[in-house]
Write a structure and sequence with these properties.
Length: 197
């Protein structure tokens, strides 16, 4: 029985590594692509999305590090790193969005940003579900928490997509920086949740 549990745990850890590997690969490609798309469109929302992808890369790296070892202290440290990353992201995006709104900054959204954010939303929601499921079965709070980071990445993708569509189709220039503010709310909420735990 103990051997079966050990085998199941090993299989679940392997699945956790695989989920983080897919997340890392997607986000590394995304950071490079979003840098180009954000520059071309002058979009605060796409820039925010690219920065969120950097946070996701960092969070995935932390989870891979944590999955490769054991210990409560290691888990607490990993969770704090993720929490601080959320707070830094929120602070930066709050300033950028406020500047864009105050100056009336107008983005010029293109098809590339729209397609990438739509595809990313689908991928991130699927990965978040996988991480939450595997993390709960393993009893690994870090993987479950990082699954929430991935879920936020999916929510942000939807918010950015909405901002790009509203700006591009209806000319609502303010929708772009407001979409970036959506992630500020979620990032602060998740950081508070992590630090309370």
């Amino acid at each position: 029985m103990a051997q079966l549990r050990s085998e199941t745990s090993r299989r679940l850890r392997g699945l956790g590594f695989a989920l983080e590997g897919v997340t890392l690969t997607w986000n590394v490609v995304g950071v490079a692509l979003l840098a180009v798309l954000a520059y071309q469109a002058a979009s605060v929302a796409l820039l925010a999305f690219g920065l969120d992808s950097l946070i996701e890369i960092g969070a995935s790296t932390v989870v891979i590090w944590e999955l490769s070892g054991r210990g409560e202290a290691r888990q607490r440290f990993a969770l704090r790193l993720i929490g601080w990353a959320f707070l830094l992201l929120a602070a930066y995006l709050l300033v950028q969005s406020a500047i864009a709104l105050a100056t009336g900054h107008r983005a010029t959204p293109g098809a590339g940003g729209i397609w990438w954010t739509a595809a990313t939303a689908c991928v991130m929601f699927a990965l978040a579900w996988g991480k939450a499921t595997v993390g709960r079965r393993l009893g690994n709070r870090v993987l479950v928490t990082e699954g929430r980071v991935t879920l936020i990445d999916g929510v942000l993708a939807v918010a950015v997509l909405a901002g790009l569509l509203l700006d591009g189709l209806l000319g609502w220039w303010w929708a772009d920086p407001v979409a970036a503010l959506v992630v500020v709310f979620y990032a602060v909420r998740e950081a508070v949740h992590i630090f309370r735990e």
